[in-house]
Sequence to fold (72 residues):
Amino acid sequence: PVLLIQGDADTDVPVQLTRAVLGDLCEQKNAVEYHELPGVGHSPAVPPAAALLPDWFDARFAGRAPTNDCGK
Fold:
């Protein structure tokens, strides 16, 4: 499983690039949880991303099925 977190105002890693990676990962049948943060740039995305990580990792280690945003 993959967790992608992207600010849509990121000029370092453009949102279009991450959306393309999301498409590729989904095409390869990966389970991808995708969070796009409105109005957030590159560095400002770190705190909200860091807040999501502990629960995501806990769920994986507990054996819970990942969220799959592919096809949405």
User: Anything to note?
Assistant: The first strand starts at residue 2 and ends at 7. The radius of gyration is 12 Å. The chain has a mean pLDDT of 97. The helical segments are 15-27, 46-61.
